[in-house]
Amino acid sequence: MPNNSALLATPPSECVQAVHAALAEFDISPARVREVAEARALAVRLIGGDMATPETIARVHQRTGAGLFIIRENGALAGLLAFLLLSERGRTALLKGALDTLAPAPDHLIEPGEEAAGVYSWAIAAANHGVAQSLVRGHERMRHVAVPHLPFYLRPVTPQGRRLAVVRLGFKPLPGRRNGLFWSEPKEHALLEVAA
Questions:
Q1: What separation, in Å, do the N-terminal and C-terminal C-alpha atoms of the chain show?
Q2: Is residue 3 part of a domain?
Q3: Is 115 exposed, middle or buried (0-12, 13-18, 19+ CB in 10 A)?
Q4: Is there a contact between 66 and 83 (Cβ–Cβ < 8 Å)?
């Protein structure tokens, strides 16, 4: 009897498909399981600080379908984008300061086929300026085109990350929060306000 488990797999949600398409325009591709440890090592080298374990990153990527994306130059890993695609419960936990970004609870993340309620930009790391530009363009394409209806959140951990978040990406401190959380309101709403 043939194995039909692949046929029964839940297809990715529209937001996950849109994220993949947006990042592919900049040669940013979803990481393979065997690339997770290498990507984490790059992030540790370039960003430092506390990081999720490779196992956690792989679990998030497998569950959401859009947790870790990489870019290569001449075959070498040169940069990454990592995201937590938040369920409604996860977005609420983030806003209450209860989301563990080093080891997020499974119910704080979307399941296969589920639409996200928000996006937490988990990490961005680039080995050089050209790769950084591609990653930023990909991130912006996500926010403005792929999923403009979603709020984005991040917590910068380096001075360079804060400058990138505020100056280049236009994130603002989340009102009423003192935990270093920044956000970018849904771009779809901003466009509607401009058009009104």
A1: 59
A2: no
A3: middle
A4: yes
Residue 159 belongs to some domain of the structure:
yes
Domain count, the chain: 1
Phi-psi region of 154 (alpha: psi -120 to 50; beta: other; left: phi over 0): beta
Structure tokens given for 24:
């592919």
92-150, pLDDT tens digit by residue? 999 999 999 999 999 999 999 999 999 999 999 999 999 999 999 999 999 999 999 99
Split at pLDDT 50, 70, 90, the class of 11 is confident
Crossing angle (nearest 10°) for helices 14-24 and 129-141: 150
Q: Specify the 3-state DSSP secondary structure of 62.
A: helix
The whole domain housing 96 covers: 11-195
In a domain, 90, yes or no: yes
Quick count: other Cβ atoms within 10 Å of Cβ 72?
14
